[in-house]
Design a protein that fits this description.
Blueprint (H helix, E strand, L loop, with lengths): L5 E5 L10 H4 L6 E2 L2 E2 H11 L4 E6 L3 H10 L6 E6 L5 H8 L9 E5 L2 E4 L3 H6 L5 E8 L7 E4 L2 E4 L10 E10 L14 H10 L3 E5 L5 E4 L3 H10 L12 E2 L3 E3 L4 E2 L4 E7 L4 E2 L4 E7 L4 E2 L2 E3 L2 E4 H4 L15 E5 L6 E8 L2 E8 L4 H15 L7 E5 L4 E5 L6 H4 L5 H19 L13 H15 L8 H19 L3 E4 L8 E4 L2 E4 L6 E4 H9 L8 H15 L5 H23 L11 H9 L2 H6 L1 H11 L1
Parallel strand pairs: 1-4, 1-6, 4-5, 8-12, 14-17, 15-17, 16-18, 17-19, 18-20, 19-21, 19-22
Antiparallel strand pairs: 2-3, 6-11, 7-13, 8-11, 9-10, 9-11, 22-23, 23-24, 24-25, 25-27, 26-27, 28-31, 29-30
Helix pairs in contact: 4-6, 11-14, 11-15, 12-13, 12-16, 13-16, 13-19, 14-16, 16-17, 17-19
Length: about 600
């Protein structure tokens, strides 16, 4: 059996999914329980018998160089391969070709935390026909590759998360013959593997028992990894009250009475007295105050340049709270300087709805509808500065809210819907939610949700699709009004006594019942049937438009099957696994409405399979 003694560690990436934290700390140096990830990886390779390692560098190379010089590992020789232009995973191997000999070498992604025996990967490697031996898992991650009989069939599964899929863990033993398939310049090692597979080589897919793998490339996965690897005793220090996982750097300070839950405090960070933090990362030198959830807390100086900070804010004094990208290709960052705060929305202009956001905001503001105020728009930088309307949504406030107060807020939402649906649009819109648009939603449901169920026959799928098409036809025959498209509790913010509606960039023409289904049969919260009836009656009274029962059923079916498909699709993305928790509520909501269940037995049958 070969004993690999050489390895390549990929450490050149920008760490985009962890921005803006990785503007301050290169991802390979992010600590996991106060030990930099790169040093963890190098120590593991040394335990495996590796003696020579090359690390590729591009983003913030000087800091990585300083770290490995400051903490050498005896017995391990280290070489660095600097890339003036980032070269990708394949280009990194090609540029470091001088380093490899005729023996297989380890290739390790720089953003994975792992603990496994290398033996199974080494034993699966056959130099005469194996181009690589790849560690895979079927238990977690995006499960985006197809595997069978110990081999990779495809690195681009058409059905991610399906029964024969797995996650490639970013640890592989590579045949140096792969260099024959790698061009100079930028390239992907996966593309090279695919070419080799077409030429008759195989990529071994190896599951390893009693192993651990985590991708720390997103804020949520970084926090989850700390929870997975937490010491038996809780970490304590300062005057804080720690209810669950807290990782505190030795130089971090926790003020008296602070409450921390799933928090990582990096060097020189400060949590002020009485602060309440949940699911947060506090970056080096940052100060966290007040109630913060699900954010990276960072100094503005470490995250922004002078041209990026909103006017009126000072880099030296401001703090930021950066929130991860969800399903929208938009990232939100709160900038706070004393009592003043704004939200920055950084968007991907490739998505049409993002390009429409500013125009939609102006249109709705002019019509007197309460949405976050538009303060600045830098089209060239794809950046919008908005009024900060806070973090309290109807979704988050729902569990502790008395019924009387709850209904008051929902009636305000109904009043908003009545006014919104009555608008005559004078701005560009997304394509209408017509029959073709609803067919596209059905495709999401069938491709992601139904495909994830085992053993569903083609005839059962067809029966379910026919029921969805019947609902589509009913909705397509309804009058088209301006709809929000995602009119749900998470997009209804409570600022003082005001209801502020967000995430309206997908507004389009469509059936009013679709918004009503989104609001009243929302998988994020659960209203009672009595509450739903009263609120629906309020809409009919306010709009003067009746909504027949069969149209309500059709809209609920259309909206929630679309949501189920989207939840499964999004949950395959690193850092967005939490979308999966909404699936049981959506399934139960569809199953528990008698008239809907009676008229859609094929769809309900599929949902019952999912509930098992």
């Amino acid at each position: 059996m070969v004993r690999p003694t050489r390895a390549l560690v990929l450490a050149a990436g920008f760490g985009t999914r962890l921005h803006p934290l990785t503007r301050q700390i290169p991802k390979p140096l992010l600590p996991v329980w106060n030990r930099p990830l790169l040093l963890r990886t190098l120590a593991t390779l040394r335990e495996w018998g590796v003696r020579d390692v090359v690390v590729n560098l591009h983003h913030r190379p000087g800091e990585i160089l300083s770290a490995v010089i400051a903490q050498p590992l005896p017995g391990l020789r280290l070489a660095l391969s600097f890339e003036p232009d980032i070269l990708g995973t394949g280009g990194a191997v090609r540029k470091a070709a001088w380093f490899f000999d005729r023996e297989p070498f380890w290739m390790i992604n720089g953003d994975v935390v792992f603990d496994l025996s290398p033996g199974p990967l080494v034993r699966a490697y056959q130099p005469e026909n194996t181009i690589a031996s790849a560690w895979v898992t079927k238990k977690t991650g995006p499960r985006s590759i197809d595997v069978a009989d110990g081999r990779v069939l495809s690195f681009r599964s058409a059905t991610p998360g399906g029964p024969s899929t797995a996650t490639f863990c970013g640890v592989h033993l590579v045949n140096p013959r792969i260099l024959d398939d790698l061009p100079d310049g930028f390239s992907s090692i996966i593309t090279a593997y695919e070419r080799a597979m077409q030429a008759g080589w195989s990529v071994a897919a190896v599951e390893v028992r009693k192993s651990y793998w985590a991708d720390i490339g997103t804020p949520s996965s970084y926090l989850r990894t700390h929870e997975d690897l937490a010491p038996v005793r809780p970490v304590r220090g300062g005057g804080g009250l720690h209810s669950r996982m807290v990782c505190k750097a030795p130089t971090a300070v926790i003020g008296k009475g602070a409450s921390l839950d799933h928090v990582v405090l990096l060097d020189r960070s400060v949590v002020e007295a009485g602060a309440c933090l949940r699911n947060c990362i506090v970056a080096p030198g940052a100060r966290a105050a007040g109630r913060i959830e699900g954010a990276i807390v960072q100094t503005a100086r470490s995250a922004f340049s002078e041209g990026e900070i909103p006017s009126g804010f000072q880099l030296e004094h401001a703090m930021i709270q950066a929130y991860p990208v969800r399903g929208s290709a938009r990232a939100y960052t709160r900038v706070r300087d004393g009592k003043r705060s704004v939200m920055i929305m950084q968007y991907d202009p490739a998505r049409q709805e993002n390009r429409l956001y500013a125009g939609h905001t102006r249109f709705l503001e002019r019509r007197g509808l309460r949405v976050p105020g538009l303060l600045q728009h830098d089209r060239a930088a794809s950046r919008i500065v908005l009024e900060d309307v806070g973090d309290r949504s109807l979704e988050t406030a729902f569990p502790a809210m008395p019924e009387r107060t709850l209904l008051q807020w929902y009636r305000r939402a109904i009043q908003f819907a009545v006014r919104f649906h009555g608008l005559q649009p004078a701005c560009s819109l997304m394509p209408p939610l017509d029959a073709a648009g609803m067919d596209a939603e059905h495709q999401v449901f069938m491709t992601y949700f139904v495909q994830s169920l085992r053993g569903v026959s083609a005839s059962r799928k067809q029966s379910a699709l026919m029921e969805l098409q019947r609902a589509r036809d009913l909705l397509a025959a309804q009058p088209r009004v301006l709809i929000h498209r995602d009119f749900q509790s998470s997009n209804l913010m409570l600022k003082g006594r005001e209801l502020v509606v967000i995430d309206f960039q997908g507004m389009r023409l469509g059936p009013a019942a679709y918004d009503l289904a989104s609001l009243l049969w929302d998988p994020y919260v659960s209203l009672s049937e009595g509450q739903r009836r009263r609120l629906l009656a309020d809409y009919v009274s306010g709009s003067g438009t009746p909504v027949p029962e069969e149209i309500v059923d059709a809209a609920i079916l259309q909206r929630l099957t679309q949501a189920l498909g989207a939840f499964v699709r999004l949950s395959h993305n690193p850092g967005q696994e939490s979308f999966r928790r909404h699936i049981p509520v959506a399934v139960q909501t569809l199953r528990s409405r008698p008239s809907l269940a009676a008229s859609n037995p094929a769809v309900i049958s599929l949902l019952m399979r999912a509930a098992k």
